[in-house]
Structures are given as C-alpha cells and as structure tokens.
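step 3/5: co-fold with GDP-alpha-D-glucose
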Amino acid sequence: MTEIFKGKFIIVSNRLPLELDIQDDNITIKPGAGGLITALTPVLKKHEGVWIGWDGDLNGKLSCDVLEREAASFDYTMKSVSLTSQEVADYYDGFCNGTLWPLFHDYLGHTQFHRSTWRSYQAVNLKFARNISQYAEKKDFIWIQDYHLTLVGKYLRELGARHKLAFFLHIPFPPWDIFMRLPWRKEIIEGLLVYDSVGFQTVKDCRNFVQCIRRLLPEAKTNILKKRIIIEYSGRHISIGAFPISIDFEEFHDMAQTEEVEKEAWFIHENLPERKIILGVDRLDYTKGIPRRLRAFETLLEKYPDLCEKISLVQIVVPSRTSVPEYQKMKQNIEETVGRINGRFTVKGWVPIHYIYRSLTRAELIAYYRTSEIALITPLKDGMNLVAKEYCASCVSEKGILILSEFAGAAFQLRKGAIMVNPYNIEHVAEELYRAIHMPLPERRSRMRRLRNIVRRNTIFVWMDDFLQAAGLKLS
Ligand code: GDG
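step 4/5: write tokens
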C-alpha cells in the first residue's frame, strides 16, 4: 500500500557526490560528475535528503566537520564514511572494480576472485551499515545505490533495522551462466533479497536476476504482477522491477539554448569550420568500447576517402580510476590509436580526431552535444548510458543522429529512433556512420523528434516516482 512518507530520505552510495581538492591544508569541495550523481542530484534538490557515502579522502585530512561546513551550500546534507587506504585497495579497487564490475559486464577474462577482497567487501558493507544506523530513524527510507553496497541491507537488518530498504543496480545484472562463476554468488543473491524492493535498469537484467534466484534458491517463489515481479523468500515479499534511469530533460533542453552554451558552441564551430562533427563521450573504461570506435572511424576514412576534411571525430574521455594500472594502460592504448589514425590521415588544416582527456564543464559538454551532427555511443555493455539521453535532450535543432550500441541499457528505450549497431562489428559501425552522414534531413528530424519525445516522457523524475511507487512510498 502507498502511504505519504514523512521521514528522512536517505541515499547511500559508495562515493559522496563531490570532488575533493586537497592542497596542503587547503580543502575545496565541488559537486562531482558521473552517471549516478547526475541522475540523483535533481531528485535530492527537490526533496530534502541525506546522502551517505565515502568522501574520497585517502589521507585522513578531511574531518566530518570540514566536510559538512564545505558542503553546507549543497541542497542536501552529507554524511561521510571514512575508508582506510587498505580498504580502498581491497574493497573498492579489488572486489568492486576487480570482481563485480567486470563480471557484471560479462568480462570474465578481467574478473579476479580473491577471498581477501571479498572479506574486505563484507567488512566495508558492514561499516556502511553501522554508519547509516547512527543517522537513520525508524520512519526513514533508505535507498542503497549500486554494486558496491549489495550487502548493506543484510547488515542493517542484522543490526536491528526495521526501515523500508530499497536497492538500485546501475550496472547490468549478468546472465546466470556468468554470475554462477562467482564463488560468493549465494551470499550476493541472498543479500539482495533482504531489501523490500530491488530495481534494475532493464527487463533483461530483472530476468537474469530471477534466473539466478531460481537456480540458487529453488524454494523462492516468483509471482509476476503486471510490470513487477514479487519474490517470496524466507517469509518475506521482495518487489523486483525494471526502472530505466534517465535525466532531467528540461535542464538539458533549456541549457542548450543559453547564451553560455551558444558561446561555447560558436568556439567549437570556429575551430572546426564546415565539418560534420561525430561525438564520443565516455568515462575511461574498457566497457565503453573506445578503441573499437576509433577503429570504426578509421575504417570509414579508409573506405570513403572523400570524407576526409569533411568530418571530424571529437572523442572526450573523462579520467576514471586513474590509479589502477589497467586503466593507465587503456589510456595509453587509446592515445596511441588516436595518434596512429591522426598520423595516417591528417592533412594541412585538418586533423581527423580531436581527443580531449579531461572532464568538461556542463556548458562545454552541452555545447558539444548541440553542435555534433552524430553521437557515436558504442559501449560493449552498459547499464543504461546517460550520455545517449543527454545528447537527445540537448539536440534542440532536431537534426542530430544517435548511433547506439545494442548492448547499452538505453537501447531498450531508444532503438526506434537511433541507428542501432553491434560495436564488435567494426565494418558495420563504419557503414552505419556513412549512412548517418548522408541521411536526408527529414529522416534525421523524424528520428530525433521521436527520440526526444521518448526522453521527454521518461525523465529522472518518472524513474524516481516509478521506483518509489513500486517500493510503496509516496513523497507528497
Ligand atoms: C553508471 C553506469 C548508467 C561525462 N563526461 C563529462 C560529464 N559526463 C557525465 C555525463 C553523464 C555521466 O557523466 C556518464 O554517465 P553514463 O550513464 O554514460 O555512464 P557511467 O558513468 O558509467 O554510469 C551507466 C549510470 O551509472 C546511471 O545509472 O547509465 O550504465 O555505468 O551524465 O553527462 N560531465 C561533465 N563533464 C564531462 O566531461 N560535467
């Protein structure tokens, strides 16, 4: 039953939504970037909330008081969980990013299984649960985010919590034959069944989860109720559903038309005159398919040399997990590929690939969305991919084309207006790029209108309302 909610709205994620800059004794805190943060900030601004997470401080310089003072201008309260550098190495780099992230993205080859990192994962999840119990009162709603914290609910219950507990997974849930390789598969599945509601990005993720339950816990009963699945397990009812995360459409649509963005867009045009811009925007990660995308662009130039000097690929890579050697190697590989392709095709006055390795301001990013004729979004696997939706919302001219990987969660909603590609098929991506470059304006317009309508109707607020309704909660 849905009831009006009167408690605190508590969001828990691995990282607090901020960026720390610590220079000697000088600490500055800025709101951070990234999928999860972008998605939840508007919701927390709208409804009074508390965000609990790791502050990202590895040197123990940031006390809770400093954090709370610096973050006072934010529109919600922040409470930090401190992690030691050993915990960051074992729990975060080890189990979260060395085991769960690759396994859940079907990268068995990259997946490490170490008992020590699993133990650290359990210990840090318990630490989060203890921390939450200090602030949470009985009437509060606690919403745990993502794969870093699957076991927090279980520990909260063990500590006596009787709150409504919800969990949302931002990354894909893998097919059962991949998930079953995890030595601690039963612990994770049982941990997730402690929440009152569990949300996934797509119906496929839900289906994969249910298949794992059937194999690991045959005594659990599954009932399908309209769009929801109710699991009966251990005397409890757990609501499971697909809730595709999204963006604040109006924010991107409005910002794309501001003077600030117009000015940025003008600079981009000035630097790339008379060029069709193809845009790639990704956090540095092997799941995003950047090297294959570069090779598809190279194949396009190879097969259609008349396109030289007429098109440019702008590839923005946002630094991520910079201390991990594998990510450093990946960066090097991308940069070598960019250098090789540019060395091969550059002529006086034209460079085929413009490579940007840094985080842009929101205005700069939206200016790129607005000025790019084509967004080339080709992850090998992605929970959703918000960049695809942001591109459509910012495309106020309605002339842009979205080329999207079949393996992005966003494909379930956007496949009718986007050009769909298999990112592993480099030749095919190159051909579809060629088709997009030559697509007549009426078709571009009709596809982009369709895409924008889908994103306009399915915003982050709809995601939130749907999730909370399924969790039996009403905010006002
Ligand atoms: C995870 C899942 C899921 C990017 N470059 C800049 C910048 N960004 C922002 C974008 C976008 C976000 O980062 C990236 O979100 P994605 O959804 O594409 O990807 P992940 O970071 O991997 O997020 C993903 C998501 O969680 C949400 O559930 O969709 O599948 O992997 O919002 O705008 N922001 C700024 N400058 C940049 O240069 N300011």
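step 5/5: annotate
Residues 3-246+461-475 form a domain with the Rossmann fold fold (CATH 3.40.50.2000).
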